[in-house]
Amino acid sequence: MNVAQTIERSPASGADTAHVRIAVVDDHESVRIGLKSAFLENGYDVVVAAASVDEFIEALAGREVDVTVLDLSLGDGSSVTENVKRVQAAGSAVLVHSIADRVSLVREALAAGAAGVIPKSSATKTVIAAAATVARGEVLNNLEWATAIDADRDFAKAQLGRREREILHLYASGMPLRHAADSLGIGYSTAREYLDRIRVKYIEVGRPAPTKVDLLRRAVEDGILPGLDPDGDGR
Q: At what angle do helices 103-112 and 80-89 cross, to 10 degrees?
């Protein structure tokens, strides 16, 4: 019997979550059931609940998912990078569900492109809020993320110059590049050159940042922009 399950949206769903499609991938049945119930009660579409990425992909059957809550370490011998990449290839953002002591695996998940990490010790409402953040296309900058980076001695920061850091700070904060250039008293073409250099430097340390969201992630990782509080809600 396939342990993957497909689930309809709860009729109690609200307007804010009615179109957010969630998947849960965890090899512990109790976790799958708990998260599934919580998301349904809060009005999310839970499209798939599966014990492995293989089962997730099989059960997905061409349907779309916005956010997949993915267990950091599944018991089927699959790697963290492989799992994150396969879920992303299916069109879903990845929110990693982790226990706090697996720092190297958290680092690997972030390097593979996970949108954020939420501890398994978090309250259910915190996991749901984190999924909502990721569904909006925002980066989840919580304490688990920062701790994993700070504790990883192999984490390579890009060596950015003062102007590059200033451009990254303004641009990743949401300011249009032209406005950032005006703010710093430089030309738009010069600001574009700085941005291109920043992206090259991140590629050189194995942390590519092709999109603005990726640059926001890198800026937080390298301490150029602050992260959020442990609950990821900005308070």
A: 30
